[in-house]
């Protein structure tokens, strides 16, 4: 099962989601990330945060949703539409859900404030991915309506 974490720039939140999911997921589940308007480079603070958490990022890069190596089964948008971001709408026969997370790379302030924003985004994404992976995945693979309901519920979880 392939899960696409999608946002606009594919440099921070979607990268964190991809790396976390792949670090925690069982065999047969794989995440990829992409952006509708990729920045072309990964956010250095996001990479440093993942390294500090012991989560590998080798081979990850900022990519367009037009260049996906596989067709996703599930698409999770992680942009924060409430903050005025335009969330990309992935078209195609996939299960879609939205897990809005504020972009920590847009936080201005002291180093401590910016670091806290990255930690918060990481904590939210980790809590949601762990909740996703705690679902009875083998059963839900065939029950798309139930899986969609669970993924939508998870999109509102806070750590």
From TrEMBL:
Protein name per UniProt: Arsenate reductase ArsC
The protein's Enzyme Commission number: 1.20.4.4
Residue stretches making up the Phosphotyrosine protein phosphatase I domain: 1-135
GO molecular function (one): arsenate reductase (thioredoxin) activity
Keywords carried by this UniProt record: Arsenical resistance, Oxidoreductase
Root EC class: oxidoreductase
InterPro entries recorded: Ptyr_pPase, Ptyr_pPase_sf
């Amino acid at each position: 099962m392939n899960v696409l974490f999608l946002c606009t720039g594919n440099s921070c939140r979607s990268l964190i989601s991809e790396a976390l999911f792949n670090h925690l997921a069982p065999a047969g589940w794989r995440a990829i990330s992409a952006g509708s308007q990729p920045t072309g480079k990964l956010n250095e603070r996001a990479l440093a945060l993942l390294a500090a958490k012991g989560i590998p990022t080798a081979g990850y890069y900022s990519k367009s949703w037009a260049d996906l190596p596989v067709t996703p089964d599930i698409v999770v948008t992680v942009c924060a539409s409430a903050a005025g971001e335009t969330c990309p709408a992935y078209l195609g026969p996939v299960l879609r859900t939205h897990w809005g997370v504020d972009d920590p790379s847009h936080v201005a302030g002291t180093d401590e404030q910016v670091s806290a924003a990255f930690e918060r985004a990481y904590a939210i994404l980790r809590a949601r991915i762990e909740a996703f992976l705690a679902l009875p995945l083998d059963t839900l693979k065939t029950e798309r309506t139930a899986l969609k309901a669970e993924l939508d519920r998870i999109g509102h979880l806070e750590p």
